Amino acid sequence: MGLESAPARIEARLSTFDTAMVVFSLVVGIGIFRTPAIVARAAGSTGLFFTAWIAGGLVSLIGAFVFAEIGSRHPRAGGYYRVVADCYHPTLAFMLNWSQIIVQGAGGAGVAVIGAEYLMPVLLSERYRTPHAALAIAGATMLLLLTLNYRGIRPGARTQNLLSMLKIAMIIGLALSAFWIYGRLPAHMQEPPAAGSSVPRLVAALVPCFYAYGGYQMTMNLGADLRNAPRRFPIAIGAGMLTVVTLYLLLNLAYYRVLGIDGIASSKLVAAALSRTLFGAPGEVVFSLAVFLSAAGFVNATILQMPRSLYAMAQDGALPRAFLRVNPGTQTQEIALLFFGAAMLLPAFILGTFEKLLNYVIFSDTLTIAIVASTLFVLRRRTAAQLVFSLPALPSLTVLYIACLLAVSFRVFTLDPLVSLTGAIVLLTGWPLFWLGRRVFGQASQSVEPDGRAAPESEG
Question: CB within 8 A of 270, min separation 6: which ones?
C-alpha cells in the first residue's frame, strides 16, 4: 500500500476474553509487588491497610464501569483520545493523550527494565548481573513483543492471553501457598493502633492503591477492535477488573498472614519477602519469574493499545498521515507501532525512584481520567435512546468517582509538588504541539470517518 492510498479499515478482531486479558495486564504490572509496602507505611495499621485496598478497589470498580459505559456508547479506535475530542475539543484531547504517551512509553520501558533485573538471577551468574545486562534483557523483551505485535493484532492478543493466564496462575499459587503453609495466624498479627488522625493516613494510603489499580481506562483505545463492542465492552472491563480486585485482596491477605503489617511495611519488595519466607532460596526464583511475567504482560498490553491512540490523534491532523495506515491483513499500524516502540526504547525521562515515578503517574493519570470520565454526562445526553450498558445511580457514582480522583491528585500535589508541576508542564506542552501539528500536517482527519474507519477519498 503506497503512502498516497486511503487508510485501510480497522476491523474488529478481538474477543471479549482477549480484551478482558488486556484490562488485566494493563492493571497488574509491578504495582502489586511494590506498592503494598508503601500502603502499609502510609496506613500505619492493619485496619487502614485493608480499608485502603478495599476502598481503592471499590472506587476502581466504579471507574471501570464508568469507562465501560463510555466505551459502550462511543466505541472508537483510540477511544481515550476520541471521546474527549468529540465531546469537548481536539486540543484538550491531544494534551491529555500527549501526556499519556510519555507516561506509557517511558513507564513501559521502566517496567521492562525492572522485570529484567529480576530475571537476571535466573539467567546469569552474579558477575554478569550489571545494569548493561538488565538493559539488554529489557531491550530484547521489548523488541520481541514489538515483533509479535507487528505480525498482527491476533498474535499480539494471543501473547497477551498467555502472559495474563500465567500471571493469574502464579498470583493464585503464591497466595494459596501462604494460606496452606501458614495454617494458623502467627503472633505478629497484633500491633498497637497507629498514632494520628486516620483520614489523612487513609488518603495517603489510597495514592499507591490507585496506582496499583490503574490502567483499565486505556482499554478504550481498542474500541474499534472489539467485536460487538457496545455489548461486549462492559463485560470485558467488568470481568478484567473483578479479577484484579479479587486477586489483589487475596495476595494482600497472604502478605499479612505471613509477614504481618510491620513486615509488609519494612519490605521494599514484599512479594520477594513472601516468597523467601515460604520457599527459601527457590522462592526467589519463583518471585523473579512472576515479576518478569507481570512486567512483560504490562508491556505487551501497552504495545497492543497505544498505537490506536496515535491513530485517533492523526485523524485530527495533529500527527502525520502515516499514523493512519493500517495493514488490512494484520490490522497492525506499522508506522505508529514503530514510533511507539522508539518511545519505549529511548527513555523519555528519569525520575530516580519508584515512589517519584508513582507520584508522577498518579498526578497525571488522575487528572486525565477525571476529565475523560466526565464525558459520560455528554454522551448520556447525546445517546439517551441507545440500548447500551448504563451505570446504575448515575450521576452520583460518577461524581463520587471523579471526586475521589481529584482528591488523590490534590494529595499527590501536597506530597510532591515539584513532580506534580512537572506532570502539569508536560500536559500543557501538548497545546502548542497540537496547533503546530495541525499547521504542518494539514487536514488528515477529512479522509477518516469519526468511528476510526477509513472513508473513501475523493477523486479530485
Answer: 33, 34, 36, 37, 255, 259, 264
The x, y and z cell numbers of residue 79, run together, are 477511544
End-to-end CA distance of the chain: 20
pLDDT at 282: 79
Cα 127 to the center of its chain, rounded Å: 35
3-class SS string, 164-199: HHHHHHHHHHHHHHHHHHCCCCCHHHCCCCCCCCHH
CB 349 within 8 A of CB 429: no
> Which region among 134-148, 181-195, 209-223 has the lowest average model confidence (pLDDT)?
181-195
Please report the pLDDT score of residue 183 as a whole number.
Answer: 62
Q: List the Cα angle 122/245/192 in 5-degree steps.
A: 85
Residue type, 153: I
Per-residue pLDDT tens digits for 374-428: 999 998 888 765 656 776 766 788 898 899 888 888 888 887 888 788 888 888 8
Q: Which residue has the higher pLDDT, 6 or 150?
A: 150
Do the Cβ atoms of 310 and 342 come closer than 8 Å?
A: no
Domain positions in the chain are 16-186+194-447
Sign of the alpha-carbon torsion through 316, 151, 110, 54 = positive
Q: Rounded to 5 degrees, what are φ and ψ at 267? A: -105, 105
Which pTM was predicted? Answer: 0.79
pLDDT level of residue 196 (50, 70, 90 thresholds) = low
CATH architecture of structural domain 16-186+194-447: Up-down Bundle (1.20)
Residues 6+ apart with CB under 8 A from 48: 194, 198, 201, 202, 205
